[in-house]
Write a structure and sequence with these properties.
Number of domains: 2
Strand order of the largest sheet: 1-2-11-10-7-12
CATH superfamily of the largest domain: Translation factors
CATH topology of the largest domain: Elongation Factor Tu (Ef-tu), domain 3
Largest sheet: 6 strands, antiparallel, barrel
Order of helices and strands: EEEHEHEHEEEHEEEE
Helix content: 10-25%
Length: 222
């Protein structure tokens, strides 16, 4: 489990920047601030340690009264998105409920991160788009409307049914995806933007979660 802290963000789109050595870096801009700590989970009370963050704002009319009372008590606007981050106890002790977080409070330039989001939904797709099939082997000798088919899916007598896991057409996209080991190219506190090298999942304006990498130590570019 990834217990590194992170922030909630919104994917703004892709651009490019020039680095100090003159090379061009293709980056994705993520609006990560401000995020507000709206709750805490503790080992004594809940059995685990976590921080709850809120991102964006929501009209008070759309918020349930008990939640609205909680946000008014904290002195923050009702967030449109709330996410919970499992963290260690020492990290949770660094932040207080109601505290607003900037990108630089969590991330540094050159840090290795993981970005999670929901991939673009592509509806019902065939095997060539969904599984990169090459299509039918022939288009001659009387073959009709078979160029983009998947071919055989099983045998008649043995086993007498289609095996589970056969790659066929179906729902493509609209799934939770995590891009591992991306690098923070630039932290822009005034704009609340994080520039990340490479692409991140989801469509423009989609909600993503950015947190420290689970498989690599956050070391700067060397």
């Amino acid at each position: 489990m990834n217990t590194n802290f992170g922030l909630i963000g919104k994917k703004l789109g892709n651009t490019q920047i020039f680095q100090e050595d003159g090379e061009v870096a293709r980056v994705t801009a993520i609006q990560t601030g401000p995020c507000v700590v709206v709750g805490k989970r503790t080992q004594a009370k809940d059995g685990y340690t976590a921080l709850q963050l809120g991102f964006g704002t929501k009209r008070k009319k759309l918020v349930k009264k008990p939640q609205l009372a909680l946000y008014e008590k904290l002195g923050v606007e009702p967030p449109s998105v709330v996410r919970e981050f499992r963290v260690t106890a020492d990290i949770a002790d660094k932040y207080e409920v109601g505290q607003a977080l900037k990108p630089s409070d969590v991330f540094t330039e050159g840090q290795i991160i993981d970005v999670s989001g929901t991939s673009k939904g592509r509806g019902f797709a065939g095997v060539m788009k969904r599984h990169n099939f090459s299509g039918a082997g022939t288009v001659g000798h009387g073959t009709h409307e078979y160029k983009r088919h998947g071919g055989s899916i099983g045998m008649n007598m043995t086993p007498g049914h289609t095996l589970k896991g056969q790659r066929m057409g179906g729902q493509y996209g609209n799934k939770a995806i995590t891009m591992l080991n991306l690098r923070v190219a630039k932290v822009m506190d005034e704009e609340g933007i994080l520039l990340v090298e490479g692409g991140v999942p989801g469509a423009r304006n989609g909600v993503v979660t950015v947190r420290g990498a689970v498989k690599k130590n956050p070391q700067p570019r060397g």
